[in-house]
From TrEMBL:
HAMAP family: tRNA_metthiotr_MiaB (MF_01864). It comes from Campylobacter majalis. [4Fe-4S] cluster 1 binds at C12, C49, C81. The lineage of its organism: Bacteria, Pseudomonadati, Campylobacterota, Epsilonproteobacteria, Campylobacterales. Its cofactor is [4Fe-4S] cluster. Residues 3-118 form the MTTase N-terminal domain. This is tRNA-2-methylthio-N(6)-dimethylallyladenosine synthase. Binds 2 [4Fe-4S] clusters. One cluster is coordinated with 3 cysteines and an exchangeable S-adenosyl-L-methionine. Belongs to the methylthiotransferase family. MiaB subfamily. Keywords: 4Fe-4S, Cytoplasm, Iron, Iron-sulfur, Metal-binding, S-adenosyl-L-methionine, Transferase, tRNA processing.
Length: 435
């Protein structure tokens, strides 16, 4: 009889894909089946995030709850980025945890499950040419990790300490993965990495020379691939070649994530981001010029150590000039192992909250104007999700979430929709095509 696996995934899309790899290994090699019911699981996994302090607290509250409610004899494993940076300290705080498996050690999951108190958190471990089995949480969404780790070492960021140095996955593995996804019926590929447009910088063994633009072109030649999305690209590597491939390849979805972090050049230097306010604006405005329909999303950190009121105003200024379609904004959170956590000039919590509120309110005003302009527009929507309120939702080519009345027969299809009730989070519309 098969054993039951419950897995909870926190953090970013790379963690979602790592969880799919873990599930594939455990299904193929250890005869596990997924369950949504933690109480009946033989193995409970939590795939963790460390990027800010909050998700780390969440790990300990969640495993505590698992321990209380789990079936007798069930094992608990902690995987992912917090596993990488806390390692066996996790056993001290939560002695009932059975194993700890770091974010860069996913292929060792079967050993972890079978070895009491197993710990493996080596951030130099190289599993970039490991061919994982196939498992997808959704038939329509095909995440593909194209690189592991990050070489950038921004001074606030823990990721290089949890996922190690950057290494690209060999092209042949990526092409195979994409072909498998399309043969299952997926029409969209979603490429993932901390710094995707630096793809090809380093492979673990000798490899043909290929960069991110080449990778996009090669993937778009695969039969059945209708759309390609990716995250996160780094603004520093947005050279003209990249922006032109992005604009001119008709299969690349016209939405770009451009993580700003700060609009002030001095703060950017202290963050070690490698670009200036002017470079960022130049790239964003060039992108808008090349692709008038593009939607641009961003990540912003407010109250980085030493950020003054006037430096924060530069971030507000970039917000006005770029008019992002989506903003993910965070208060700076000091992280262990990072240089910025040691900076002496930490910003007062109250000031940080005020800045965050101001940024978010102004973004919402801009967003309301952007959203109102979508009324009456016709979008090609790739439907991929049933919504709780009876609708079906999907993404427009430029990444708006669009929802219509309908049922599961829409899933996996790309259909024309006219927007008639645009809201901040979702554009409601009517289907213009019969299926
Ligand atoms: N590789 C991506 C970022 C991945 S982390 C990039 O370079 O953009 C996702 C986001 O979390 C970051 O863009 C940043 O905005 C935020 N973040 C990372 N470390 C943080 C910290 N210490 N405090 C607050 N936000 C942080
Ligand atoms: Fe972190 Fe910077 Fe790397 Fe992004 S580029 S993962 S923010 S170190
Ligand atoms: Fe979190 Fe690790 Fe992703 S820290 S954001 S899960 S890379």
């Amino acid at each position: 009889m098969s054993k039951k696996l419950f897995i909870q995934t926190l953090g970013c899309a790379m963690n979602v894909r790592d969880s799919e790899h873990i599930i594939a290994e455990l299904k193929d090699k250890e005869n596990y089946e997924l369950t949504q019911n933690m109480g009946e699981a033989d193995l409970i996994l939590i795939n963790t995030c460390s990027v800010r302090e909050k998700p780390v607290h969440k790990l300990f509250s969640e495993v505590g709850a698992f321990e209380k409610a789990k079936k007798k004899g069930a094992k608990i494993g902690v995987c992912g980025c917090t596993a990488s940076h806390l390692g066996d300290e996790i056993f001290k705080k939560a002695p009932y945890v059975d194993f700890v498996l770091g974010a860069r050690n996913v292929s060792k999951i079967t050993t972890a499950v079978n070895t009491p108190k197993f710990v493996s958190t080596d951030i130099n471990y190289d599993e970039s040419d490991y061919a994982f089995g196939e498992f997808r949480g959704s038939a329509f969404k095909s995440y593909i990790n194209i690189s592991i780790g990050c070489d950038k070492k921004c001074t606030y960021c823990i990721v290089p300490h949890t996922r190690g140095d950057e290494i690209s996955i060999p092209l042949n593995l990526l092409l195979n993965e994409a072909k498998k996804a399309t043969s299952r019926g997926a029409k969209e590929l979603f490429l993932l990495g901390q710094n995707v447009n630096n793809y090809g910088k380093r492979f673990s063994s000798s490899h043909e020379k290929v960069d991110f633009s080449d990778l996009l072109n090669r993937l778009s030649e695969i039969e059945g691939v209708e759309r390609i999305r990716f995250t996160s690209p780094h603004p520093l590597h947005m050279d003209d070649k990249f922006l032109e491939v992005f604009a001119n390849n008709p299969k690349i979805c016209k939405s770009m994530h451009m993580p700003l972090q700060s609009g002030n050049t001095k703060v950017l230097r202290e963050m070690k981001r490698g670009y200036t306010k002017e470079w960022f604006l130049n790239r964003a405005l060039k992108l808008r010029e090349l692709c008038p329909d593009v939607s641009i999303s961003t990540d912003i950190i407010v109250a980085f150590p030493g950020e003054s009121d006037s430096e924060f105003e530069d971030t507000m200024d970039v917000l006005e000039k770029v008019r992002f379609e989506q903003v993910f904004s965070f208060k700076y959170s000091p992280r262990p192992l990072t240089p910025a956590a040691e900076f002496k000039n930490q910003v007062d919590e109250k000031v940080a909250s005020e800045r965050l509120t101001r940024l978010q309110s102004r973004h919402n005003e801009i967003l309301d104007e952007i959203v109102a302009k979508q009324n009456g527009k016709i979008f090609d929507v790739y439907f991929e999700e049933l919504r709780a309120n009876g609708g079906v939702a999907g993404r427009s080519f430029n990444n708006f979430l669009v929802q219509v009345q309908g049922s599961e027969e829409l899933l996996g299809k790309t259909l024309k929709v006219r927007v008639n009730n645009p809201k901040r989070m979702v554009l409601y519309g009517e289907l213009l095509e019969k299926i």
